[in-house]
Amino acid sequence: MIALMIADDHPLMRQGIAQVLRAEPGIRVLAEVASGIEVLEHPQLAQVDVLLLDLSMPRLDGIGVLRVLADRSRAPRVLLLTAHSDERIAEAIEAGASGCIMKDAPPEELAEAVRVTARGGSVLSPAAADALVRAARTAALPTVLTQRERAVLRLVAQGQANSEIGRRLGISATTVKTHLQNAFAKLGARDRAHAVTIARDRELL
C-alpha cells in the first residue's frame, strides 16, 4: 500500500485529488496539507512513501520543501504537481523531485504517476518535459546582456524609437544607440527586430 501525502494550498484542488486517489487500489491518502511548513512539521511525514507536492504554496514553496527534505535521512519520494510549465520545474528536479505531473492530468494518469514514483521511477508530463528542455537550452546559452541592454530591447520590442526609450529610461538617445549596438554584437543580430527575436528565443527578455 502506497502511503500518500498531498500538499496543495487550494482546498478544492487538494480535496478533489484526494477523492480521486482514495478510490484507487493500492493507494492510501495518509495526509492532506496546505503549505510547505505543514509538510515538514507533519507528524506522519516519516511514514509517507510519495509526497504529491504543489510548486506554489505559502509558508515555504515546493522547492523550499525539497531542499529541506534533501538533508533528511528519511524522506518520501516527491512527485511535483503544478498548473504551469516553467523554469521552476527544472529547479525542482535538480532539488530532488522524482518527476512532475500537471494539475489537469486525467485521474488515471495521476494515479499511475503516483505508482511509478513509489516504485522508484520518474514521471514527466509532456508539458513538464518541454519545460526541462527549454531550461536546458537556456542554461547552455550565456546570459550576455546587461540589465540596461535588456531594458532597451524590451522597449524596442514594444516598437519604441530611441528617443522615447531614452526618455523612459532617463538616458540620451545616443546612449540608447550604444546599448543597442552592444546588444547586436553580443547576440550576433543584424538589426533591431533580429535582436529582439534572438533575445526572446533565448528567454533573455
Notable characteristics:
Arc Repressor Mutant, subunit A, 10 helices, 205 residues, Rossmann fold, 5-stranded parallel beta sheet, elongated, alpha/beta, single chain
Q: How would you describe what is shown here?
A:
InterPro entries: CheY-like_superfamily, NreC/VraR/RcsB-like_REC, Sig_transdc_resp-reg_C-effctor, Sig_transdc_resp-reg_receiver, Tscrpt_reg_LuxR_C, WalR-like. Residues 138-203 form the HTH luxR-type domain. Residues 3-118 form the Response regulatory domain. The chain is of the alpha/beta class and 205 residues long. The chain has two domains: 2-139, Response regulator (Rossmann fold); 147-201, Arc Repressor Mutant, subunit A (Orthogonal Bundle), CATH 1.10.10. Helices cover 52% and strands 14% of the residues. Strands 2-1-3-4-5 form a five-stranded parallel sheet, sandwiched between helices. It is elongated, with a radius of gyration of 22 Å. The termini are far apart. The mean pLDDT is 90.
